[in-house]
Amino acid sequence: MKILITGGAGFIGSYLAEDLLDKGHFVIIIDNLSTGRLSNIRQIYRDDNLEVHIDTIFNKRLMKDLVKNCEQIYHLAAAVGVRFIVDNPVQTLETNIYGTEIIVQLANKYKKKIFIASTSELYGKSESLPFTEDSDRIYGSTNIRRWSYAESKAIDEFLALAYWHERKLPVVIGRLFNTIGPRQTGQYGMVVPRFVQQALLNHPITVYGDGKQSRCFAHVGDVVDGMVKLMNEEKCVGQIYNIGSDREITIFDLAKKVKKLTKSSSRIKLIPYIEAYEEGFEDMERRVPDLSKAKQDVGYKIKVPLDDMLKEIIEYYKK
Predict the structure, then answer these.
(1) Is-catalytic flag, 163?
(2) Looking at the predicted structure, is the pLDDT value of residue 280 above 70?
(3) Of the CATH numbers 3.90.226.10, 3.20.20.30, 3.40.50.720, 3.40.50.10540, which one belongs to the domain with range 2-181+217-244+284-302?
């Protein structure tokens, strides 16, 4: 099968490309390298079943050809990372809304099955845990730039589901929770690679806020496995699925765990949100998914424990 991945040189996209190549598919990647990197696909770059385009999804002529000549689409191209989103609100909205509109319209024109990568940010400030796919969403003021990402991905979901209901475009939506693994960069606000790099350098491990906020971290391999299973199960068409881990840890405890595993002499330093991001920045206290829908429909499993994930990332950065 010929499969198109938008954002295929990104952290998750590169692992997805590897997985699909291993399964015998022909993979087409398009990535503008705004947050992706060629080094992410270095190990597969010369594969005869890989085609790479360093270009933007806004190139309609190219996208028309790529979509027309593939059988499935995984749409991962997006503005990602809290730091990037706060610093680049215009690019965030344009990429996540207009870019997705282009892909969905072309997928509909040629009737190609499409996976839309959404986000746990979509649940906003809701405290109704664990989050189910039909949970209500609560956001802050439009003056707080971090919510633009969640709103833009919500629009993506509305658009994809509208095409499914009205025009029978086969779509599957996956709301990805905190995904980690080697090759992820801390440059755009991703917490685990940032902690690991700081610890290895014996620099202060900087925890934003009071550190009591909690997250659930899933290994990129488990997440990719879930995405592919959802995409290839007919009953999942027109559905939304949480994909990630439901094993919770506070960010302060995460920092302590990284410090211990790296045998670092770093101190853990609390940084107020206003210094880390912007005045009025809002965060979620907890973010825990209900994974029962994905488990029931495709047998989704979390296989890699957090300590093993962290050890793998530590070894990657040591090299």
Answers:
(1) no
(2) no
(3) 3.40.50.720
